[in-house]
């Protein structure tokens, strides 16, 4: 009887341990630009050193953190960017009841002075308390956080305004698999395998450096038309499990999520 009770106790301990392991949460991924949750909520993040500061820009708010301003966190309402005509430079003029700031984002390679990490954007922040005249000018590096909703497998439904069919291609419909964390994509163009990189900014998406295998395609195959449309994309919308890719001329491609 004692042996049976001991076995039951041992079994209950094993079950309890397994339950505890199953309930433990995975550690949240963190980089110098913040947590993974930050990158999902904010479209642009930046940091700087000497003194340390951080910037998170979202559709609803802009959050600046630093001890130099006398406050650990300052929240500004989001504003539209002032864009330079001849360069990829954006300026944001923001203010609230206590502070005023000018944020400038320049598409220029930037190296973190401490970690040595290379980022694609140089950032400057000029900020002051409204009760003071003197501006504090800070510099650092930043990056756009590619929309996590793009991270999926998408199969083509429409090309240049027309529904597509398997007979328009070699064996199956074109598809793309987007890796938003690495800004890369791969897939099938309707005849050949394709791959390339993404260029992403707020309200801007481009498929660039597109390469493909060189298999001969059957007459009438629309892979060339598909590849051309893909490389002309500048904007996107996601909704109802569909991805619509467009440019100023109109809708180019519509995909459906399949996984």
TrEMBL record:
UniProt entry keywords in alphabetical sequence: Signal, Stress response
UniProt KW Lipid metabolism keyword: no
One Pfam family it belongs to: META
Matches recorded under Gene3D superfamilies: 2.40.128.270
Claim: Ubl conjugation is one of the keywords in the record: no
InterPro entries xrefs: DUF306_Meta_HslJ, HslJ-like_sf, Hsp_HslJ-like
Domain of life: Bacteria
Domain DUF306 stretches: 152-256
Signal peptide as annotated in the record: 1-17
PANTHER family attached to this UniProt entry: DUF306 DOMAIN-CONTAINING PROTEIN, HEAT SHOCK PROTEIN HSLJ
Protein name listed in UniProt: Heat shock protein HslJ
Lineage, uppermost ranks: Bacteria, Pseudomonadati, Bacteroidota, Flavobacteriia, Flavobacteriales
């Amino acid at each position: 009887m004692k042996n049976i009770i001991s076995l039951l106790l041992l079994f209950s301990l094993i079950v309890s341990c397994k339950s505890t392991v199953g309930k433990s949460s995975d550690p949240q991924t963190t980089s110098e630009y913040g947590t993974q949750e930050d990158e999902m909520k904010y479209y642009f993040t930046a940091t700087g050193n000497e003194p340390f500061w951080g910037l998170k820009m979202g559709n609803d708010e802009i959050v600046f953190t630093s001890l130099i301003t006398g406050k650990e966190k300052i929240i500004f309402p989001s504003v539209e960017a002032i864009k330079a005509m001849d360069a990829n430079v954006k300026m944001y003029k923001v203010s609230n009841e206590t502070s005023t700031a000018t944020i400038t984002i320049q598409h220029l390679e930037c190296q973190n002075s401490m970690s040595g990490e290379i980022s694609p954007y140089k950032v400057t922040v000029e900020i002051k308390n409204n009760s003071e005249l003197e501006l504090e000018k800070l510099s650092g590096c930043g990056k756009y956080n590619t929309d996590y909703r793009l991270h999926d497998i998408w199969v083509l439904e429409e090309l240049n305004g027309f529904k597509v069919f398997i007979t328009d291609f070699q064996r199956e419909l074109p598809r793309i698999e987007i890796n938003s964390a690495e800004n890369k994509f791969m897939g099938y163009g309707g005849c050949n395998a394709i791959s390339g990189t993404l260029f992403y900014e707020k309200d801007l998406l481009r498929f660039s450096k597109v390469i493909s295998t060189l298999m001969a395609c059957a007459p009438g195959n629309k892979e060339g038309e598909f590849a051309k449309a893909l490389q002309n994309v500048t904007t996107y919308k996601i909704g109802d499990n569909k991805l619509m890719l467009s440019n100023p001329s109109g809708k180019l491609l519509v995909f459906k999520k399949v996984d």
